[in-house]
Amino acid sequence: MTLPDPAGPRCFCRDCLADLDIGGRRCSACGSPRLVRHRTLASLTIAHVDCDAFYATVEKRDNPDIADKPVIIGGGKRGVVSAACYIARTYGVRSAMPMFRALEACPHATVIPPDMAKYVRVGREVRQAMQALTPLVEPLSIDEAFLDLSGTERVHGMIPAKVLARFARNVERDVGISVSVGLSCNKFLAKIASDLDKPRGFAALDQDEARIMLAEKPVGFIFGVGPATQERLLQRGFRIIADLQKADEIELMRQFPSDGRRLWRLARGIDDRRVEPDRGAKTISSETTFETDISDFASLEKILWRLCERTSSRLKSSEVAGSTVTLKLKTADFRQRTRSQSIAAPTQLATKIFSICREMLAKEIDGTAFRLMGAGVSALRDGSPADDTDMLDRRAAHAERAVDSLRKKFGSAAVIRGIAYDGPEKAQESPRPARLQSPSKMSAPG
Ligand SMILES: [Mg+2]
Fold first, then answer.
1. Could you tell me the distance, in angstroms and rounded to a whole number, from the CA of residue 129 to the centre of ligand 1?
2. Is residue 144 annotated as part of the catalytic site, yes or no?
3. How far is the CA of 81 from the centre of ligand 1 (A)?
4. According to CATH, where is 1.10.150.20 located in the chain?
5. CATH 3.30.1490.100 occupies which residues in the chain?
6. 145 C-alpha to center of ligand 1: Å?
7. Pick the catalytic residue: 138, 144, 287, 400?
8. What digits encode the pLDDT tens for the residues 302-345?
9. Is 3.40.1170.60 the CATH number for 54-117?
10. What CATH code would you report for 209-267?
11. What is the 3-state secondary structure (H, E, C) of the chain?
């Protein structure tokens, strides 16, 4: 044990949370080798928490017989790997790999079909434990989130690093799965840090270290820099992040007007984005899982219309309208695609929601088989003045309200509109009712 450092502890034990001398190799209190050490530890408050090989870890928790075996989640009708445990990964098994290839690489792996309902439940438990630490939790997917712990030291009686170490320990004990924590001064660096020490990791990273670490990485390492941007950068001689670090800010902004400033800053590990909890920001949506996967536009379009009608009627009965329309698709191999479009004035009209979603859907048709589709509206506000802005909308609103009132009187089958009419409802679809959900549910699992 050491005397308290006025700048806060620089080294502590992840198991017993004792403060330690920065030079030690094991905890002098409990003997654990799992120490966190960092010279500016007490000043780092933004974390990225990521569950380790989430689906596979949950399955191992529930069946100790496979704890030390290579486990692959996937298979069944869907021929790709949804997740692989760390043992399976040592054989080269990766997410999204075709199942037959994965089994070539690791023939003795235990294959388990995904149980999404279970993973959602476990993900929610972890999320709740995060929310007990700070209200500033921004979920990125079912198994990862950003946390902002600034200003919480008083409440918790310890620095954020220790709060997070205790959280990770408690999740292992109470939920039975492991997480990795990345701690830094902003979201970009926290996300990098959580990947440095996986699984059961804890890595702290400050801006000076990040600048050095980033230097040798390719520019594509920066989030949002896809192949097209990478190519543009390469043409101007920016191959690795060090090239961006050396560039002059104004010059970079001149060469890349839309993202030059952002690239210059991120290359230096500067990121001002806030951790945004999805407080109150609700989405009204409906979604449905198909009984068999669908890839053709005509079939998807019909189902989409019904989803939009459901979402619309839900918006109307809640007396709200929204100005962001989101189409959600899940591919046969559980990859999620969400496409959103914002419109000038909020809407609650099925026809309008449909026309926007339909356009987004058309762009996703590339032979991919989909297992699920959803249509949602967010950025909600009071619905009464909605859809009265221009003539066309006004007319469509009139027509739709007339249909709505007929349905209210005679039941929903009384009026069947447009594309929905193709005979009796097919067995293809197993509809789930429209419901309120947070936008976080519309992001992809990691
Ligand atoms: Mg994960």
1. 16
2. yes
3. 15
4. 209-267
5. 283-436
6. 10
7. 144
8. 999 999 999 998 888 777 788 889 999 999 888 889 999 888 88
9. yes
10. 1.10.150.20
11. CCCCCCCCCCEEECCCCCECCCCCCCCCCCCCCCEEECCCHHHCCEEEEEECCHHHHHHHHHCHHHCCCCEEEEECCEEEEEEECHHHHHCCCCCCCEHHHHHHHCCCCEEECCCHHHHHHHHHHHHHHHHCCCCCEEEEECCEEEEECCCCHHHHCCCHHHHHHHHHHHHHHHCCCCEEEEEECCHHHHHHHHCCCCCCCEEECCHHHHHHHHHCCEHHHCCCCCHHHHHHHHHCCCCEHHHHHHCCHHHHHHHCCCCHHHHHHHHCCCCCCCCCCCCCCCEEEEEEEEEEEECCHHHHHHHHHHHHHHHHHHHHHCCEEEEEEEEEEEECCCCEEEEEEEEEEEECCHHHHHHHHHHHHHHHCCCCCEEEEEEEEEEEEECCCCCCCCHHHHHHHHHHHHHHHHHHHHCCCCCCCHHHCCCCCCCCEEECCCEEECHHHHCCCC
- pLDDT (tens digit, 9 = 90+) per residue, 146-204? 999 999 999 999 999 999 999 999 999 999 999 999 999 999 999 999 999 999 999 99
- How many angstroms is it from 175 CA to the middle of ligand 1? 15
Record the pTM: 0.65
CA 49–ligand 1 middle distance (angstroms): 9
**Looking at domain 283-436, what is its CATH homologous superfamily?**
DNA polymerase, Y-family, little finger domain (3.30.1490.100)
Output the CA 296–ligand 1 centroid distance in Å.
32
Residues of the chain with CATH 3.40.1170.60: 54-117
